[in-house]
Write a structure and sequence with these properties.
This protein has about 280 residues and is of the alpha/beta class. It has nine helices and twelve strands.
Amino acid sequence: MSSSTFPLIDTHCHFDFSVFDDNRETLWTLCQKSNIHHLLIPGVHPDQWCVNYDLTKTLSGVVSAAGVHPWWLDKLNEQEVCEQGLSEELLQRLDKALARQKCVAVGECGLDKAIAVDLEYQKIIFEQHIRKACELELPLIIHVRNTHNETLQLLSRYKPASGGVIHGFTGSLETAQQYWKLGFYLGVGGSITYPRANKTRRAIAQMPLESLLLETDAPDMPLNGFQGKPNSPLKVIDVAKSLSELRDSSLENIIETTTKNAYRLFNLSLQYPTPSVIQN
């Protein structure tokens, strides 16, 4: 059975990572033929911001963000960080990256209790990202790992007007509602395909569809049944189908609404290509 649908967007895919080097253009062509017309590459490290920019120029429909992921903080050099967080020099480089065409968000940034980097230091750098988003009126792409309380406290303090997305959301309905109240969407990816992820599945099933975005986090966050294999932006179709089943909603409604959500948040063109056909 098939149904006409709006195009999909993978709102979080590390398409610049080396695992895609051998087949990136071929894979993106296949994505477009499969009705995936937009993809967002988050920033993780300053050396990668220019790579992302180059990809947005050569791959139609690809956009990017710029920021420093907490996992990459210990890879910054002495000229890039100081006791006050990111150095002035690096903040200027961030400004330049964020000003580029097709750079639509600040991030990926955030907090992670599972890494060795001191959490208080992470907070300083996360706050710098939040202030930058407020200054430039750009949305945030936020990484949260065991830090919902700390993240919510900072977002409540600054209240960034352009909101953002909580990448790879895993949490309770109450937590999801708090983020949505602050203007933050929830990134829905492979986690909802795991039957044991009961808390997250319940939250995603009960939140308004208008609060959700589709993402893969490729090459990471594989779907259930594909553990140990590199994830692919093509799997955003399977995420959409899993969300359709979880919410007992039509695939067409899931795709149309989440695509509009993504385009609204990242200020992308709402001029959709001609709807195509996806096989259920």
